[in-house]
Amino acid sequence: MFHRGVTFPSNAMQLENSGENAEEMPPVSLGSVTAFNKSVPARLLPILAAFLAFFLAIAFNPSSASARIFSVDPPPRAILESVLTPTLETDIEPILLPLEWEDHGGPSYIGSGVLEREARPETIIPDRPRLRVITYTVQLGDTVFGIARRYGISVQTILWANERLQGNPDLLRVGENLVILPVSGVYHTVVKGDTIGKIARRYKVTPDAIVAFEPNHLDPEAPTIVPGQKLIIPGGKKPPRPQIVHIPDIRIPKDASHGTGRFIWPTSGRITQRFWSGHRAIDIGAPVGTPVVASDSGYVIFAGWNNQGYGKLVIIDHGNGYRTYYAHLSSILVRKGESVAQGRRIGSVGSTGHSTGPHLHFEIRYHNIHKNPLLLLH
């Protein structure tokens, strides 16, 4: 029967002789197991006995105190590597080890000399130029400038592509659908007798610019066009169209107030649109009801509703070739045929007519030629 404990003779631990003249050591009894010193050096016997006792203890009672006494920490990694690593380079096989770093797409591993990363699908859509004509619905507060800036085209392009706005961007109204080209230029409808050459000369571009523009779908070898066909003319230009307001001839009395030639600001607020070729006026944004005054002394030649988009409108003749226009008013406080002094209140800011928000549309004309108000106001 095997014993859990191990008993070593005291003289077995004190042997110093070895070699041919060494005395034979009596057998060490370990239960029914007998070990002889003829094949094992004497100094190794205690070690072998300890290992044998360790394995016997675990085999028959792993939870016993004697088994726990012989618990051993794992050997250092360096020792394992020195034992397990092949000595010849040709025998080296790759070992998969986790590679720790900041996570940029999943765990990575080194194996067979290859660094692999877990796939993390991600779609990147590059910016591409728009190649088709679209429509835009005007929103409250929109201006032609703002819409043009949003789509990266010129203001004139929007006016030219939308016939009703040509010459008067103030005709813009909420809910209206605007044609928006993909590039700055002209949107032309082919009529009978048109040729690519004629169209190019009309809008001051080369025929190649029209033919080569992909959305026109023209055969570069033999371009043909038919009446009713729509063409985009990249870089094309149209001559300006003057804004016309029909005012009946009025005889101004000799005793009517005359202007000084120096204009004051007609209201307070912020400029939402400046004077330019397509908008020969300035727009001053202000809350509904903000007072509007006469920019200079003069005679009221029109005070009422205008059907051309101005809404409630007041026109003052200043008796020196100048006239001022005050449009989109919410209320009018003067009458036609009345003299007014500079600074007198004539109405209130509003959003009547074709308007996308409350503002005063203010024009100065000299002999019916539009002048930039910003150069004349004091």
For the record, what is the CATH homologous superfamily label of the largest domain? Glucose Permease (Domain IIA)
**pLDDT averaged residue by residue:** 77
Regarding CATH, which class of the largest domain? Mainly Beta
Domains, number? 3
Largest sheet: 8 strands, antiparallel
Write the topology of this structure.
Blueprint: E1 28-30, E2 33-35, H1 45-60, H2 65-69, H3 77-84, E3 97-99, E4 108-111, E5 114-117, E6 134-137, H4 144-151, H5 155-161, E7 177-180, E8 185-189, H6 196-202, H7 207-211, E9 230-234, E10 270-273, E11 282-285, E12 291-293, E13 298-306, E14 311-317, E15 322-329, E16 331-332, E17 339-340, E18 345-348, E19 359-366, E20 369-371
Helix pairs in contact: 4-5
Description:
By secondary structure, the protein is an alpha+beta fold. It has three domains: 98 residues, no CATH class; 101 residues, Roll (Membrane-bound Lytic Murein Transglycosylase D, Chain A); 106 residues, Glucose Permease (Domain IIA), CATH 2.70.70.10. The chain is 15% helix and 24% strand. Strands 10, 11, 13, 14, 15, 17, 19 and 20 form an eight-stranded antiparallel sheet that branches. Strand 3 and strand 4 form a beta hairpin. Helix 4 crosses helix 5. The longest helix has 16 residues. The N and C termini lie far apart (122 Å). The N terminus is likely disordered.
